[in-house]
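Minutes, project check-in
Item: structure for the 237-residue chain
Input as provided by the requester:
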Amino acid sequence: MKKTFSEFREMLKTVPPLLLTLTVLAVVGMNLLANKSIVNLDWLALDAGFILSWMAFLTMDILTHCYGPRAATLFSVFALLLNLLMAGIFFAASRIPGMWGESFVKGSEQVINTALDNTFGGTWYVLLGSSVAFIVSAIVNNFLNYGIGKLLKKQDGFGRFALRSYVSTFIGQFVDNLVFAMLVSRIFFGWTTLMCFTCALTGAIAELLFEIVFSPLGYRISKRIKARQAVSKGAEA
């Protein structure tokens, strides 16, 4: 445990602050965007959360590549705690009397205002389900990414980074979507098991496409972090 926290502190010292900020924003934002359904059929479902969730997983891949799975997972817990803090703030804001700007539609003010309050305020089971799903998927993603990297230790370069990221992201995102769907959508919204699996698969594919597009950027960021680590170790020596 002491070693893990040491790795986490070292990570916070050397990782670009913008990268960590984007991770937290992605975790907070994807839970809000998940309230918007893009496709909702009897056999297929997809929400807007995938627009940002890939960013959190790409960051976890970078952190795992540079610092190992324990530090990356600990940061995932840290990001989740910040998300819970923001969820509390959003809930408080939803209970404060007042009107949202978008609710001023003649004859529908109260209905729209209540809907916006409920969207930002959230519900306990959605928050609980998303939190459990994120942590489970983060553990799967980080340790799978690390394990694939160990198998490919004789290789180097973008190909190695890409392969371990693509496989871990697809499986990690599938686990994230499936755990949430089974814990929340199936129990509270009446989804069928088929819908849960197709939603998980569709979301994982969509999120993987984002990962493929932005993985070259992730690789360049990881190279810069590795270079800083090498300089820091050289200075210490």
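Outcome recorded: The first strand starts at residue 37 and ends at 40.
No further action items on this chain.
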